[in-house]
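Tip: read the tokens left to right.
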């Protein structure tokens, strides 16, 4: 955990957009705020889309801390899943070697981007005993049935199913089919029912559990890890907007049926999609800009982070070389201002930055406020007598940008 500077005073209560209600509402954490963010599937790390998502939730973490909360942050890594096995077959490598290598690279990239690490970083593989137990519990409640030797969760057993994404049945079915689901498999009771345990296939890894020889479905993995480490009713469930349906809808439904409690999370928060070459950056399409590639070209990670922060987290946007160029210029401006022996009183700027971030993470306005201060500082030639160092501490603590 890198040190986070303490700032004078205290940040405001964080308000965030909640996908379920479609409104910006206050988060209401206890002393310890609880957040689960869906982690990577480690077969190719870390592109700018990933970076945008994890920097977004890093801001949530930082704004809560600035408001005086401790933060219990949990993230998974989907270290067993179809795309990883497909990549292993394509490249002739062992799936575990790919997962280990890409997970290590992801962690290195996150460190370079000054993303505060989760308190619990949990793999799908290490969670298999727990997943198996939850599937048994769902079975005992009659919410699981077999199709051949695979096990499915009956999504309609959760009265709230569908309330997160707010899609009609036809759209749910289409999106489910596009994002790893199998709406057309014969023998399912409802096309939207999702796999919770897949029996062993030839030449695929499998584990022995009470459910037989096989491996877990995707959604139950995140439900299990969140329940084990945070419990029900945690503050924020996060990820990119491509996870709203089916992933977050399904995980919440499973957890709600398992425990008989609602809600799984108080806020469902989703970052926009980063595009490149006209399409959402995705491993499956292969249109990627990697954090590590830019780092190896000698690009300062603080500039990469600033390029991401220039976009509000809920907008979809395209990565461009011009965006990075603008971020490098901003970094230079801020560094020059921070090096002056003194500058204008920072208190009004700190207040503006805190207000912008607390209001659904309006980063573009926070950056504007810091630009204004920097230009004023450079304009006055550093002759004012405010505390030097506070500007750099503010930028580091609240935005994670190290000058
Ligand atoms: N392992 C699952 C979640 S349990 C998964 O979705 N992995 S992932 O590697 O595909 O994506 C990791 C995170 O990055 C997810 O939150 C996803 O929503 C986000 N993400 C993926 N592509 C983009 C993109 N182009 N723009 C913004 N965020 C993205
Ligand atoms: Zn997940």
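Filled-in amino acids:
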């Amino acid at each position: 955990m890198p040190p986070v500077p303490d700032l004078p005073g205290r940040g405001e209560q964080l308000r965030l957009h909640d996908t379920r209600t479609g409104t910006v509402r206050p988060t209401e954490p206890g002393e310890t705020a609880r957040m689960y963010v869906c982690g990577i599937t480690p077969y190719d790390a870390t592109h700018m889309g990933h970076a945008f998502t994890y920097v977004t939730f890093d801001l949530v973490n930082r704004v809560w801390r600035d408001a005086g909360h401790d933060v219990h942050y949990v993230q998974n890594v989907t270290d067993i899943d179809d795309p990883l096995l497909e990549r292993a077959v394509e490249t002739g490598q062992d799936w575990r070697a790919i997962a280990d290598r890409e997970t290590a690279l992801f962690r290195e990239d996150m460190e370079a981007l000054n993303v505060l690490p989760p308190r619990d970083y949990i793999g799908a593989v290490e969670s298999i005993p727990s997943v198996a137990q939850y599937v048994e519990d769902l079975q005992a409640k009659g919410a699981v049935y077999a199709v051949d030797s695979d096990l499915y969760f009956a999504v309609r057993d959760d009265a709230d199913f569908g309330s997160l994404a707010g899609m009609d049945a036809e759209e749910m079915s289409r999106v489910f089919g596009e994002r790893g689901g199998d709406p057309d498999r014969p023998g399912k009771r409802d096309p939207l029912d999702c796999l919770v345990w897949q029996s062993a296939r030839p030449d695929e890894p499998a584990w022995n559990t009470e459910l037989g020889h096989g491996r877990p479905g995707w959604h139950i993995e995140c439900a299990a890890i969140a329940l084990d480490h945070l419990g029900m009713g945690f503050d924020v469930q996060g990820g990119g907007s491509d996870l709203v349906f089916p992933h977050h809808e399904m995980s919440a439904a499973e957890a709600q049926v398992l425990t008989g409690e609602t809600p799984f999370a108080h806020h469902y928060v989703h970052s926009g999609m980063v595009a490149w070459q006209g399409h959402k950056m995705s491993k499956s399409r292969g249109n990627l800009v990697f954090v590590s590639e830019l780092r190896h070209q000698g690009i300062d990670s603080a500039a990469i982070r600033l390029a991401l922060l220039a976009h509000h987290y809920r907008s979809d946007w395209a990565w461009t070389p011009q965006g990075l160029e603008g971020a490098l210029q901003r970094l230079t401006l801020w560094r020059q201002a921070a090096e002056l022996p003194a500058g204008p009183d920072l208190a009004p700027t700190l207040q503006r930055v805190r207000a912008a971030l607390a209001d659904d993470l309006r980063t573009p306005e926070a950056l504007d406020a810091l630009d204004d201060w920097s230009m004023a500082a450079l304009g006055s030639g550093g002759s004012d007598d405010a505390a030097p160092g506070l500007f750099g501490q503010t930028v580091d603590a609240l935005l994670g940008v190290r000058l």
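The first strand starts at residue 15 and ends at 18. The pocket of 5CA (ligand 1) is lined by residues 38-41, 49-50, 52-53, 76, 78, 222, 239-240, 242-243, 271, 273-274, 280-282 (CB under 6 Å).
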